[in-house]
Amino acid sequence: MAQTPDNEQGSMAAAIIQNNNTNNGNIESDPDSLSTHSRTSYDLNYNSEEEEEKQRLINQVLTLQKTLDDLSHRVDTVKEENFKLRSENQVLGQYIENLMAASNVFQMTNK
To answer: How is residue 2 annotated by DSSP?
Structure first.
């Protein structure tokens, strides 16, 4: 007799019920099934934790790279500002020396 889809589903249901009865209704009573389930669960948890740690480290590296880039730009800006201020100081120093040389107030007196 050919099996119709209804008969096929009935046979599958009967096999599942018999399997549950054999295992006392507990799917995990089979040691191989439990071991495989535990390993799979552990692997998924481990992979999940590993992926989270990996993502956290990647984010930390990206943050540190951005911080380093910002600090590098800041150092360049401070160097430029320092150079400008030193140049201005030299100009002002020379100007003050010229004023002092031209003024009678700062001339040496002979007594």
So the answer is: P
- Which portions of the chain are predicted below pLDDT 50? 1-5, 23-29, 31
Are residues 27 and 33 in contact, defined by beta-carbon separation less than 8 angstroms? yes
Report how far apart, in Å, the C-alpha atoms of 14 and of each of 21, 22, 106 are: 10, 12, 117
The DSSP string of 19-46 is HHHHTTT-GGGSHHHHHHHHHHHHHHHH
Separation between Cα atoms, residue 111 and residue 101, nearest integer Å = 20
Q: How many CB atoms sit inside 10 A of residue 34's CB?
A: 13
* Amino acid at residue number 51: E
Contacts 24+ apart (CB under 8 A), 107-110: none
Task: Give pTM, 2 decimals.
Answer: 0.47
Taking residue 23's Cβ as centre, other Cβ atoms within 10 Å add up to 13
Expressed in percent and rounded to 5, the helix, strand and coil fractions of the chain are 85, 0, 15
